[in-house]
Amino acid sequence: MDQTTYLVHKRNLLVCKLSWGFLAVALIAGLHMGKDLAALLVHPIMFAVVLGLILTAFVAKKVFTIPVMYGYICLIYLYFFLLITGSPLLVNFLFMWLGLVFSAIYQSYIIIVLSGTFSLLISFYAFFSSSMILFSPRYLIHILST
Asked: What DSSP character marks residue 107?
């Protein structure tokens, strides 16, 4: 394994750990808010768990290092897209921009441009499909008052 591939593998490992950490926090927060575990797993979280396990296996075996890098970014944005279409809330819309932070870990301009493109496309979709829900005055007043 050459130096560049090894560096990408280490970054894949970091993104893998962060992804599982954020997924665990999302599950714990959902359970803390009183949601049923079955309702949480029907959520796009189950989709993320299945594909995340596949990518985690690739990271653990140190195979397909470069494609796994692209796979993680695509998986993250696919998860955010499913999250926004399933429950169009402002918090999910803002959470979607976390994908840019994940892509910045790789320090590759191709990944960052891909991530920025995905962010813009999902933002346009969310704005035009559910702007009345995302940016309702009642919801914004509630957020600003807390």
From this structure: T
Q: Write out pLDDT tens, residues 6-60.
A: 999 999 999 888 888 887 887 787 777 776 666 666 667 677 777 788 888 999 9
Number of domains into which the chain is organized: 1
Residues 59, 49: Cα–Cα separation, whole Å = 15
- Sign of the CA dihedral 143, 134, 76, 121? negative
Contact criterion met (CB below 8 Å) for 99 and 118: yes
What Rg value do the Cα atoms of the chain yield, rounded?
17
69 token code pair: 């890098």
pLDDT tens figures, 96-113: 888 888 899 999 999 999
Q: Please state, in angstroms and rounded to a whole number, the distance separating the CA atoms of residues 72 and 89.
A: 24
Predicted model pTM: 0.80
| Dist CA 38 CA 35 (whole Å) | 9
C-alpha distances out from residue 114 to 49, 120, 143, Å: 23, 10, 31
Residue 14, domain extent:
3-145
Q: Which 8-state DSSP code applies to residue 33? A: T
